[in-house]
Amino acid sequence: MNTIIAPSLLAADFANIQSEVNMLNQSEAEWIHFDVMDGVFVPNISFGFPVLEALKKYATKVLDVHLMIQEPGRYVDQFRAAGADNITVHYEACTHLHRTVQQIKDTGAKAGVALNPHTPVRVLSEIIQDLDLVLIMSVNPGFGGQKFIQRTFQKVKEAKSLIRESGSSALIEIDGGVNLQNAPALIEEGANVLVAGNFVFSSSEPLKTISALKNQVKS
Fold it and tell me: What is annotated as the active site (predicted)?
């Protein structure tokens, strides 16, 4: 399959976020990544239901919602109603992970589970067949602009192996520090979705930057 590019709105200009979404609509990106932070699970606070609901009116791309929050099961239905196409929760935040994944799937959204840098891939062995996405954090969650963790390449390889062995069709998504230098190696190891925040939105020409990233992974 073609590699999916998912620019993260966490790095966008919040004062002009509708314009940023309109720009992404015109880009070669397939998804728009929407990070939700609660100030508890991670030391930062970002978006909530009202912002997602407002953006849904303008977004023409898949809305990829990443819940970096405690007790995400309490809010799954609301995020789906607000416009989420994909809902990813953190393994570390879910006491009853299977139940939360099934809850996501029952809404009609695609279900993903994210792993923090310290969490081994093998913890997903009992749930992998139920997942649409495995999100591997390549930085510590909570802030943009962090340095890419090199161990991520090995984790992608391990996730790909687990997916193949289980017969799962889950995609592997990478979030944090993605750029033109590490994207090809991530794809080679098995990544399917690349989240890019600062790399896109700090560019003077984000459309060309997205295109360059897309062409880099194609080659």
Answer: 35, 175
CA 42 to each of CA 67, 113, 142, 149: distance values in angstroms, whole numbers, following the listed order: 10, 16, 5, 18
CATH class of 4-215: alpha beta
* Binding site residue list for substrate: 8, 66, 142-145, 175-177
Predicted confidence (pLDDT) per residue in 48-75, tens digit = 999 999 999 999 999 999 999 999 999 9
Lookup: tokens for 153: 């390449």
- Of 35, 38, 64, 132, catalytic: 35
> How crowded is the C-beta side of 212, counted as CA atoms within 13 Å?
13
Which regions of the chain does DSSP assign to beta strands (E)? Answer: 4-7, 31-37, 62-68, 86-90, 110-115, 133-137, 171-175, 193-196
Model confidence at 145, pLDDT cuts 50, 70, 90, reads: low
Pairing of strands 193-196, 4-7: parallel
Q: 6: which 2 tokens?
A: 């998912």
Binding site listing: 8, 33, 35, 66, 142-145, 175-177
Which residues face 193 on adjacent strands? Answer: 4, 173
Per the annotation, the verdict on 85 as an active-site residue is no
Known active-site residue 35 = yes
Q: Is the pLDDT of residue 7 over 80?
A: yes
pTM for the model: 0.95
